[in-house]
């Protein structure tokens, strides 16, 4: 396995970063998770737009242009000979000194890892996951803006720890006002009486690329969709609940906080959206 390490391709076991890298010292950096389906990088430009917007927002100077970054992604995939897999693209503030001042980090550091991926077994897509709501709150836009896909994932990790303790696949995070925000690394949707709902990102959710693709699919299929805030009560009483994310795609939820959702397995709209999503992923992409 070959890793792109700031302009060079090195073997996995040789891919090392400095202990002075501010990504390591402070979580100062940004990242993307991207899928490759049948040799296509799914929605590459959207991921790069989000990455470059995150960089601009935190005043991180990108060492590569978007085209150069796209070339680096393609070359890393080619060298690893993968047609289906997952790309992790990380841009840290780079090596500096022990102080947190980013001015001490003259150059950002880019890493690209390409791997095979299967986070949930295929049965999980039919049976649905169990889920719980957890106590860590999603930060609102005035703190660490959820639109920035930063390396500061401690909050999400605390959510994952609570999910693990509860023995469930993904958890539901609320915002500080108690509205449903998203999962630890997925966006959330519910279906009630034929209408699909997802929280607007301003209440505290990443603007997921998969979320965007599902919103587009709903429009294409003529399914009514509303972006509006909702609470756990709405989740418990929904006909269907599902998460979306680059790694998870569209995964049904069969139980939340002990309440059975719908028939207790993937509902018809969730299954249809998953099918339609899997149809578009191989045709939309780069190369
Ligand atoms: N929310 C968070 C916090 C995430 O980390 C992710 C994963 O990237 C998502 C949602 C889903 O976003 P996407 O569909 O772009 O992978």
TrEMBL record:
Involved pathway(s): Amino-acid biosynthesis; L-valine biosynthesis; L-valine from pyruvate: step 4/4; Amino-acid biosynthesis; L-leucine biosynthesis; L-leucine from 3-methyl-2-oxobutanoate: step 4/4; Amino-acid biosynthesis; L-isoleucine biosynthesis; L-isoleucine from 2-oxobutanoate: step 4/4
A Pfam family the protein falls into: Aminotran_4
InterPro entries in UniProt: Aminotrans_IV, Aminotrans_IV_CS, Aminotransferase-like, B_amino_transI, BCAT-like_C, BCAT-like_N, Class-IV_PLP-Dep_Aminotrnsfr
Membrane spanning stretches: none
Cofactor(s) essential for the protein: pyridoxal 5'-phosphate
EC nos: 2.6.1.42
Top-rank taxon: Bacteria
Catalysed reactions listed for this entry: L-isoleucine + 2-oxoglutarate = (S)-3-methyl-2-oxopentanoate + L-glutamate; L-valine + 2-oxoglutarate = 3-methyl-2-oxobutanoate + L-glutamate; L-leucine + 2-oxoglutarate = 4-methyl-2-oxopentanoate + L-glutamate
Alphabetically ordered keywords of this record: Amino-acid biosynthesis, Aminotransferase, Branched-chain amino acid biosynthesis, Pyridoxal phosphate, Transferase
Enzyme class: transferase
Gene Ontology terms, MF aspect: branched-chain-amino-acid transaminase activity
Family: Belongs to the class-IV pyridoxal-phosphate-dependent aminotransferase family.
NCBIfam families given in the database record: ilvE_I, PRK08320.1
Function: Acts on leucine, isoleucine and valine.
Name this polypeptide is given: Branched-chain-amino-acid aminotransferase
Organism: Cohnella hashimotonis
